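User: Predict the complex.
Assistant: Input components as received:
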Amino acid sequence: MRNIIIRTAQSFDQKTISSIKARFEEILNVPLRCRVELDPSLIGGFMAFAGGTIYDFSFKTQLDTLRSERGKDGNVRLHRI
Amino acid sequence: MSDCIVFDKSGVGPFLKNRIAQYAFEPKIFEYGIVLSCADGIVQISGLPHTRYGEILEFEHDIYGLALDLRQDGVGAVLLSDLSGLSAGSIVRGTGHVADIGVGEALLGRVVDPIGRPLDGKALNVTKYRQAECPAPSIMERAPVDTPLETGILTIDSMIPIGRGQRELIIGDRQTGKTSIALSAMLNQKGKNVPCVYCAIGQKASTIAQLVEMLTQNGAMEHSVVVASTASDGPAMQYLAPYAACAIAEEFMYAGMDALVVYDDLSKHAVAYRAMSLLLRRPSGREAYPGDVFYLHSRLLERAARLCDAKGGGSLTALPIVETMANDISAYIPTNVISITDGQIYLESELFNAGVRPAVNIGLSVSRVGRAAQQKAMKKVSGSMRLEVAQYREMAVFAQFGSDVDASTQGLLARGERLIELTKQPVQELLSLAEQVALLLAFSRGAFLDIPTRRVQERKEEMLTYMRRYCRRTLAQVNRSGDMTDADKEDMSDVMDNFLKIVRDRDSKQPKTAQEDTEHAEHQ
């Protein structure tokens, strides 16, 4: 029996939480005890902390990744000043 | 920090549309650890089983650290920035990057910190990254050092010549001119296609600012990079700084260029490493330094080499600086670094205070590459210089008492005194190869023996001005070819003789003071 912490941006309904928990139980192959936290700074989506690994499905991280991409794009660069 | 978008002709609209079309939601899956404790810049973390040694870890609030202690159940990390905002129980993740730094031509003219962030207020665009720790070139990849790196300083280029690919230690007490020698070498590389990297370890921010200002004023900043970790940076930043600087310089080396790197100074580097190791509770050895303090410097300095043609034929010359206490070169860190480098330039505070600047003690300084790294022209005129200076030093004690010495010793003292006077050189006054050769040629022909020692500098200046005017082509030829043919020598000698005739006539017409009269009589 392991712990999983699900940190959501807005409050999700119980059905969504259960389906997330079930999917992780499938991936990690172990029964899970679930705890839900609320963190509006994630903007959207959720982060799951399980077994020493973060599964980051939050919008904030996606936006941060876009911003800090090391000049991969062709025409226009986003500069950090 | 703010972001700005730079426009090109196609504009923002199509760019955004393209970006949105290409976008795919990719969740980030990464390991995390929990901060157990943070104190004294060291953070103990639980978790993170797959962290690599030296990996950069990201804490909350944009704080970064270096993983330097890997255990089965956790990681010990040293913070690269301030502790503020970090609390026990917060999340840590690995970035997957072992400490690396942006490299390439974009860095020329810039001041950066050891993890590549610009410190001079402008954005930095790098296309390539290189790991700070990188294995040194192997034995078969190296070629012997045979090309000189001119520092523009007469003492060094004639008696302790430095070659491209050599490691030459600059060692001395505080305030003896160590940094000045390194800076002169950097200034002299202007226009020679030798990129220079200056690594400031644990220095005052004001000192670094002054240095950058000096480089800028002399037009040397265009071919230089400054990697700065100030005294207020934590020990981890100071520890990383020389490796980062070496990585930047290595990039130029592997691109086939000859690069120069200055580490100022490795004593502070060892102290920062000691602080870090003690806080990480690693066992300490002599003088509380950790057991691998030799390895700390040897792996850094081994990366300076001359590469064989198959690898591009580039080179990296290293000028590490070590500060001694009370002229003690047999202390722990100085002896370590002396045994690693290919020679040392030993600066003495006694000489410095006596006005001999650069305050090089020729007797204790050596270049183990030596004559192989000297231009032919210089070899021809500097043959017996070291010997003359050594003999002078031995006899100089007698000169102090003004005692009765025989004629040959008197001659030796007179020559030696004037030779030392000739080698005195201000920091920003650099001499090209031809000018140095001209001075030494003039000295060997007795151009400075008929005047009192205190007038040697004056005559030297006048001679250089005269020769720059009337002997320009020959000087340029010597600079270009590196050699002084008989024709060149004759030409320079003729011009010198003309000059000497003029000044001697002028001097004889001027009324002498009584002091000059007696001095002149003594030295006849």
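Residues 418 and 453 of chain B are 6 Å apart (CA to CA).
Let me know if you want any component modeled separately.
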